[in-house]
Design brief:
Length: 283
Protein backbone atom coordinates (compact mmCIF):
# COMPACT_ATOMS: atom_id res chain seq x y z
CA UNK A 1 0.00 0.00 0.00
CA UNK A 2 1.16 3.51 -0.80
CA UNK A 3 -0.12 6.63 0.96
CA UNK A 4 0.45 10.29 0.13
CA UNK A 5 0.39 12.73 3.06
CA UNK A 6 -0.59 16.34 2.45
CA UNK A 7 0.09 18.22 5.70
CA UNK A 8 -0.35 21.88 6.48
CA UNK A 9 3.33 22.60 7.08
CA UNK A 10 2.52 25.78 9.00
CA UNK A 11 0.84 23.73 11.76
CA UNK A 12 3.38 21.80 13.86
CA UNK A 13 0.70 19.44 15.18
CA UNK A 14 -0.19 18.43 11.61
CA UNK A 15 3.48 17.77 10.80
CA UNK A 16 3.92 15.72 13.98
CA UNK A 17 0.82 13.68 13.15
CA UNK A 18 2.24 13.08 9.65
CA UNK A 19 5.45 11.76 11.22
CA UNK A 20 3.44 9.42 13.46
CA UNK A 21 1.46 8.10 10.49
CA UNK A 22 4.68 7.63 8.50
CA UNK A 23 6.33 5.65 11.29
CA UNK A 24 3.27 3.43 11.74
CA UNK A 25 2.69 2.78 8.03
CA UNK A 26 6.34 2.02 7.30
CA UNK A 27 6.29 -0.37 10.24
CA UNK A 28 3.38 -2.12 8.56
CA UNK A 29 5.35 -2.42 5.31
CA UNK A 30 3.65 0.49 3.57
CA UNK A 31 5.14 3.22 1.40
CA UNK A 32 4.63 6.84 2.46
CA UNK A 33 5.22 9.99 0.42
CA UNK A 34 4.81 13.60 1.54
CA UNK A 35 3.52 16.41 -0.66
CA UNK A 36 6.07 19.17 -1.17
CA UNK A 37 5.99 22.25 1.04
CA UNK A 38 4.66 25.04 -1.21
CA UNK A 39 6.40 27.78 0.79
CA UNK A 40 9.83 26.16 0.64
CA UNK A 41 9.36 24.80 -2.88
CA UNK A 42 6.76 26.95 -4.71
CA UNK A 43 7.59 25.37 -8.07
CA UNK A 44 7.45 21.80 -6.76
CA UNK A 45 5.11 19.19 -8.15
CA UNK A 46 3.32 16.38 -6.32
CA UNK A 47 1.32 13.57 -7.90
CA UNK A 48 -0.99 10.95 -6.39
CA UNK A 49 -0.19 8.45 -9.13
CA UNK A 50 0.19 4.94 -7.72
CA UNK A 51 -1.30 5.85 -4.33
CA UNK A 52 -4.02 3.88 -2.58
CA UNK A 53 -4.95 6.75 -0.28
CA UNK A 54 -4.28 10.47 0.14
CA UNK A 55 -4.41 11.88 3.68
CA UNK A 56 -4.92 15.60 4.20
CA UNK A 57 -3.78 16.95 7.59
CA UNK A 58 -5.00 20.51 8.15
CA UNK A 59 -8.14 22.47 7.44
CA UNK A 60 -10.39 22.78 4.42
CA UNK A 61 -7.70 24.65 2.47
CA UNK A 62 -5.32 21.73 2.89
CA UNK A 63 -7.98 19.31 1.72
CA UNK A 64 -8.59 21.45 -1.38
CA UNK A 65 -4.87 21.23 -2.08
CA UNK A 66 -5.05 17.43 -1.74
CA UNK A 67 -8.04 17.36 -4.11
CA UNK A 68 -6.10 19.37 -6.69
CA UNK A 69 -3.24 16.88 -6.47
CA UNK A 70 -5.66 13.97 -6.97
CA UNK A 71 -7.66 15.72 -9.71
CA UNK A 72 -10.08 13.45 -11.55
CA UNK A 73 -8.16 10.24 -10.76
CA UNK A 74 -10.58 9.24 -7.95
CA UNK A 75 -7.88 8.25 -5.46
CA UNK A 76 -9.69 8.35 -2.07
CA UNK A 77 -8.95 11.28 0.24
CA UNK A 78 -9.14 11.18 4.04
CA UNK A 79 -9.25 14.61 5.65
CA UNK A 80 -7.90 14.83 9.20
CA UNK A 81 -8.94 18.10 10.83
CA UNK A 82 -6.20 20.37 12.17
CA UNK A 83 -7.81 23.63 11.04
CA UNK A 84 -10.33 26.15 12.29
CA UNK A 85 -13.38 25.22 10.20
CA UNK A 86 -13.12 21.53 9.41
CA UNK A 87 -16.19 21.39 7.18
CA UNK A 88 -14.71 19.17 4.45
CA UNK A 89 -12.39 17.13 6.64
CA UNK A 90 -14.02 13.83 7.58
CA UNK A 91 -12.18 12.84 10.77
CA UNK A 92 -10.84 14.44 13.92
CA UNK A 93 -7.22 14.64 14.96
CA UNK A 94 -7.54 12.67 18.20
CA UNK A 95 -6.91 9.23 16.63
CA UNK A 96 -5.06 9.71 13.35
CA UNK A 97 -3.64 6.18 13.23
CA UNK A 98 -7.05 4.61 13.78
CA UNK A 99 -8.63 6.82 11.10
CA UNK A 100 -5.96 5.96 8.52
CA UNK A 101 -6.23 2.28 9.42
CA UNK A 102 -10.02 2.36 8.95
CA UNK A 103 -9.63 4.17 5.64
CA UNK A 104 -7.17 1.61 4.27
CA UNK A 105 -9.40 -1.23 5.46
CA UNK A 106 -12.40 0.21 3.60
CA UNK A 107 -14.32 0.83 6.81
CA UNK A 108 -15.21 4.48 6.28
CA UNK A 109 -18.19 6.02 4.51
CA UNK A 110 -17.50 6.99 0.89
CA UNK A 111 -18.80 10.35 -0.34
CA UNK A 112 -18.48 10.95 -4.09
CA UNK A 113 -18.18 14.68 -4.77
CA UNK A 114 -18.80 16.25 -8.17
CA UNK A 115 -16.01 18.36 -9.63
CA UNK A 116 -15.71 21.14 -12.19
CA UNK A 117 -13.77 21.51 -15.42
CA UNK A 118 -13.13 25.23 -15.84
CA UNK A 119 -12.01 26.60 -19.20
CA UNK A 120 -10.71 30.17 -19.15
CA UNK A 121 -10.08 32.33 -22.19
CA UNK A 122 -7.79 35.15 -21.13
CA UNK A 123 -5.71 38.02 -22.49
CA UNK A 124 -2.17 38.43 -21.19
CA UNK A 125 -0.54 41.82 -20.49
CA UNK A 126 1.34 41.63 -23.81
CA UNK A 127 -1.98 41.29 -25.69
CA UNK A 128 -1.64 37.59 -26.52
CA UNK A 129 -4.46 35.11 -25.94
CA UNK A 130 -4.30 32.21 -23.51
CA UNK A 131 -6.72 29.33 -22.81
CA UNK A 132 -6.35 27.20 -19.69
CA UNK A 133 -8.28 24.31 -18.13
CA UNK A 134 -8.51 24.08 -14.35
CA UNK A 135 -9.76 21.42 -11.94
CA UNK A 136 -12.03 22.55 -9.11
CA UNK A 137 -13.69 20.79 -6.19
CA UNK A 138 -15.35 23.92 -4.78
CA UNK A 139 -15.86 26.68 -7.32
CA UNK A 140 -14.90 29.14 -9.98
CA UNK A 141 -15.27 32.73 -8.84
CA UNK A 142 -15.12 35.41 -11.52
CA UNK A 143 -14.43 38.69 -9.76
CA UNK A 144 -13.65 42.36 -10.28
CA UNK A 145 -9.99 43.25 -10.04
CA UNK A 146 -7.88 45.39 -7.74
CA UNK A 147 -9.09 48.64 -9.29
CA UNK A 148 -12.54 47.96 -7.87
CA UNK A 149 -14.57 48.62 -11.02
CA UNK A 150 -17.70 46.51 -11.33
CA UNK A 151 -17.81 43.90 -14.07
CA UNK A 152 -20.54 43.36 -16.65
CA UNK A 153 -21.04 39.95 -18.23
CA UNK A 154 -23.53 37.68 -19.95
CA UNK A 155 -24.59 34.43 -18.30
CA UNK A 156 -25.68 31.52 -20.51
CA UNK A 157 -26.55 27.91 -19.71
CA UNK A 158 -26.20 25.27 -22.45
CA UNK A 159 -26.58 27.87 -25.18
CA UNK A 160 -29.53 29.72 -23.60
CA UNK A 161 -28.87 33.32 -22.56
CA UNK A 162 -29.99 33.88 -18.96
CA UNK A 163 -29.14 37.50 -18.21
CA UNK A 164 -26.63 40.32 -18.49
CA UNK A 165 -25.41 41.13 -15.01
CA UNK A 166 -23.49 44.02 -13.51
CA UNK A 167 -21.87 43.54 -10.15
CA UNK A 168 -18.81 42.22 -8.34
CA UNK A 169 -18.77 38.91 -10.18
CA UNK A 170 -20.23 35.42 -10.32
CA UNK A 171 -19.67 32.06 -8.61
CA UNK A 172 -20.18 28.66 -10.22
CA UNK A 173 -19.79 25.97 -7.60
CA UNK A 174 -20.32 22.29 -6.96
CA UNK A 175 -22.55 21.09 -4.15
CA UNK A 176 -19.38 20.76 -2.08
CA UNK A 177 -18.54 24.40 -2.78
CA UNK A 178 -22.07 25.55 -1.95
CA UNK A 179 -20.98 26.07 1.67
CA UNK A 180 -18.08 28.33 0.66
CA UNK A 181 -18.01 31.46 -1.49
CA UNK A 182 -21.39 30.60 -3.02
CA UNK A 183 -23.04 30.58 0.40
CA UNK A 184 -21.33 33.85 1.37
CA UNK A 185 -22.77 35.39 -1.81
CA UNK A 186 -26.33 34.38 -0.92
CA UNK A 187 -26.55 30.87 -2.34
CA UNK A 188 -28.22 27.87 -0.66
CA UNK A 189 -26.86 24.87 1.23
CA UNK A 190 -26.79 21.97 -1.24
CA UNK A 191 -26.34 18.32 -0.23
CA UNK A 192 -23.14 16.73 -1.65
CA UNK A 193 -25.16 14.12 -3.56
CA UNK A 194 -26.36 16.84 -5.95
CA UNK A 195 -24.33 16.54 -9.17
CA UNK A 196 -25.26 19.80 -10.91
CA UNK A 197 -23.81 23.28 -10.47
CA UNK A 198 -24.76 26.15 -8.18
CA UNK A 199 -24.72 29.58 -9.86
CA UNK A 200 -24.66 32.70 -7.68
CA UNK A 201 -24.18 36.37 -8.65
CA UNK A 202 -21.83 38.31 -6.38
CA UNK A 203 -23.36 41.61 -5.22
CA UNK A 204 -25.41 42.15 -8.40
CA UNK A 205 -26.59 45.70 -9.10
CA UNK A 206 -30.22 44.55 -9.20
CA UNK A 207 -32.57 42.72 -6.85
CA UNK A 208 -33.76 40.52 -9.72
CA UNK A 209 -30.60 38.39 -10.10
CA UNK A 210 -30.92 35.21 -8.05
CA UNK A 211 -28.99 32.01 -7.49
CA UNK A 212 -30.01 28.96 -9.52
CA UNK A 213 -29.05 25.31 -9.95
CA UNK A 214 -28.20 23.48 -13.15
CA UNK A 215 -28.33 19.88 -14.31
CA UNK A 216 -25.10 17.87 -14.31
CA UNK A 217 -25.06 17.88 -18.13
CA UNK A 218 -25.32 21.67 -18.44
CA UNK A 219 -22.54 24.04 -19.47
CA UNK A 220 -22.34 27.49 -17.87
CA UNK A 221 -20.77 30.30 -19.89
CA UNK A 222 -19.73 33.70 -18.57
CA UNK A 223 -18.76 36.18 -21.29
CA UNK A 224 -17.47 39.62 -20.44
CA UNK A 225 -19.07 42.61 -22.15
CA UNK A 226 -16.78 44.50 -24.49
CA UNK A 227 -18.80 47.67 -23.92
CA UNK A 228 -17.59 47.88 -20.31
CA UNK A 229 -13.88 47.02 -20.16
CA UNK A 230 -12.57 46.42 -16.66
CA UNK A 231 -10.12 44.20 -14.84
CA UNK A 232 -11.51 40.66 -14.38
CA UNK A 233 -9.87 37.99 -12.25
CA UNK A 234 -10.68 34.28 -11.98
CA UNK A 235 -10.19 32.33 -8.76
CA UNK A 236 -10.37 28.54 -8.79
CA UNK A 237 -10.87 26.99 -5.34
CA UNK A 238 -9.68 30.25 -3.84
CA UNK A 239 -6.46 30.47 -5.87
CA UNK A 240 -5.90 32.99 -8.65
CA UNK A 241 -5.99 31.20 -11.99
CA UNK A 242 -3.32 33.21 -13.84
CA UNK A 243 -1.82 36.29 -12.25
CA UNK A 244 -1.86 39.31 -14.54
CA UNK A 245 -4.28 37.82 -17.07
CA UNK A 246 -7.67 39.39 -17.86
CA UNK A 247 -10.55 36.93 -18.28
CA UNK A 248 -12.64 37.27 -21.44
CA UNK A 249 -14.77 34.12 -21.13
CA UNK A 250 -15.26 31.30 -18.63
CA UNK A 251 -16.85 27.98 -19.58
CA UNK A 252 -17.72 25.66 -16.71
CA UNK A 253 -18.94 22.06 -16.87
CA UNK A 254 -18.97 19.12 -14.50
CA UNK A 255 -15.62 17.35 -14.38
CA UNK A 256 -14.95 13.91 -15.88
CA UNK A 257 -14.37 12.33 -12.47
CA UNK A 258 -15.47 12.70 -8.86
CA UNK A 259 -13.44 13.39 -5.76
CA UNK A 260 -13.86 10.54 -3.27
CA UNK A 261 -13.91 11.78 0.33
CA UNK A 262 -13.88 9.38 3.25
CA UNK A 263 -15.89 10.46 6.29
CA UNK A 264 -17.75 9.19 9.32
CA UNK A 265 -21.16 8.63 7.74
CA UNK A 266 -23.90 9.84 5.47
CA UNK A 267 -25.19 12.28 8.11
CA UNK A 268 -21.84 14.07 8.53
CA UNK A 269 -22.92 16.82 6.10
CA UNK A 270 -25.87 17.86 8.26
CA UNK A 271 -23.79 17.55 11.41
CA UNK A 272 -21.21 19.89 9.87
CA UNK A 273 -23.87 22.37 8.72
CA UNK A 274 -25.32 22.44 12.22
CA UNK A 275 -21.94 22.76 13.93
CA UNK A 276 -20.31 25.29 11.61
CA UNK A 277 -23.19 27.51 10.52
CA UNK A 278 -25.76 27.26 13.31
CA UNK A 279 -23.41 26.91 16.26
CA UNK A 280 -25.08 23.77 17.60
CA UNK A 281 -23.56 22.43 20.79
CA UNK A 282 -23.31 18.65 20.73
CA UNK A 283 -25.32 16.92 23.45
Amino acid sequence: MEVLLVPNYSRPVAVEASKAITEWLEGEGGVVRWAHDKKLDPKGFTTAEGCDLVVSLGGDGTLLRAAKIVGYSEVPILGLSFGHLGFLTGAGSDNVIGSVSDALAGEMHVSRRATLDVELDMVLPDGSDLTEHHFALNELALSRGAEGDMVEFDVSVSGTHIDRIRGDGFVVSTATGSTGYALASGGPFVHPDFKGMVCVPISPHTILARAFLTASSDVVELEMCEERPSERVAFVDGQIAHRGACVERATVRCGPGDVILLDGGSQSFYNSVSRVFYGRVRK
